[in-house]
Amino acid sequence: MDEYGNSGEGRATRRDEAVRAAVEQGLLGPDSPIVGLLDVTGIRESAAELRAAFAEVTAPGTPVLHAFAVKATPLVPVLRLLREEGIGAEVASPGELALARAAGVSPAETVLDSPAKTPAELREALALGIAVNADNPQELDRIDGLVRSAVSRSPLGIRVNPQVGGGSIGATSTATATSKFGVALRDEGAREWVVRAYLDRPWLSRLHAHTGSQGIPLSLMAQGVAETYALAEEINRRIGRPQIDTIDIGGGLPVNFASDATAPTYAEYARALREAVPGLFDGRYGLVTEFGRSLLAKHGTIVARVEYAKSAGGRAVAVTHAGVQVATRTVYVPGSWPLRITAYDGKGRPKSGPEVVQDVAGPACFAGDLLAEGRALPLLDQGDYAAALDTGAYYFAHHYAYNSLARPGVYGFVPDRATGVRFATVRDPQTLASIVAESGGAHAGALTTLHTPGSR
Ligand SMILES: *Cc1c(COP(=O)(O)O)cnc(C)c1O
Question: How far is the CA of 224 from the centre of ligand 1 (A)?
Answer without folding.
Answer: 14
